[in-house]
């Protein structure tokens, strides 16, 4: 996996967390930078751990599927990308809530875990391509920390409109990364 693909993957993995952060930020009464950074760090740490867990699962299975690894990575990434696009095009069913000044750790933790499931699956697919998983996890974690912090701060101004579009863009990027992996495999034959 080339560095550009890794950067694109990192930001693609952070878009659903960004969308959630916009929602969380719009649900707060004037979110401050410290609260936004706190949320960013929580999301970033979880988003960095899940691809490592997925990679370990993928490594355990890799010796059984070496001949099909490019197809597995392609299908997982395209499937996740299409799922993110579908979710981004879907209706938003969030009910209006009272606006606290801060979210609890557990609310942020559960939201972060929910938005990092795709990173777990990406970690599985990364086990089948040549990538340093620690570097990939750090990049994904840092991108997520940055995007969530920005999302929280922008949440009040931008609302759900940009959040949904960010998820669609992230899905398109995942589809393109999956297609690039498949293209690079066939180009090397």
From TrEMBL:
<feature type="transmembrane region" description="Helical">
    <location>
        <begin position="133"/>
        <end position="154"/>
    </location>
</feature>
<dbReference type="GO" id="GO:0005886">
    <property type="term" value="C:plasma membrane"/>
</dbReference>
<comment type="function">
    <text>Probably functions as a manganese efflux pump.</text>
</comment>
<dbReference type="InterPro" id="IPR022929">
    <property type="entry name" value="Put_MntP"/>
</dbReference>
<feature type="transmembrane region" description="Helical">
    <location>
        <begin position="71"/>
        <end position="91"/>
    </location>
</feature>
<keyword id="KW-0812">Transmembrane</keyword>
<feature type="transmembrane region" description="Helical">
    <location>
        <begin position="166"/>
        <end position="183"/>
    </location>
</feature>
<comment type="similarity">
    <text>Belongs to the MntP (TC 9.B.29) family.</text>
</comment>
<feature type="signal peptide">
    <location>
        <begin position="1"/>
        <end position="19"/>
    </location>
</feature>
<dbReference type="InterPro" id="IPR003810">
    <property type="entry name" value="Mntp/YtaF"/>
</dbReference>
<keyword id="KW-1133">Transmembrane helix</keyword>
<keyword id="KW-0464">Manganese</keyword>
<keyword id="KW-0406">Ion transport</keyword>
<keyword id="KW-1003">Cell membrane</keyword>
<dbReference type="Pfam" id="PF02659">
    <property type="entry name" value="Mntp"/>
</dbReference>
<keyword id="KW-0813">Transport</keyword>
<keyword id="KW-0732">Signal</keyword>
<dbReference type="GO" id="GO:0005384">
    <property type="term" value="F:manganese ion transmembrane transporter activity"/>
</dbReference>
<keyword id="KW-0472">Membrane</keyword>
<protein>
    <recommendedName>
        <fullName>Putative manganese efflux pump MntP</fullName>
    </recommendedName>
</protein>
<feature type="transmembrane region" description="Helical">
    <location>
        <begin position="103"/>
        <end position="127"/>
    </location>
</feature>
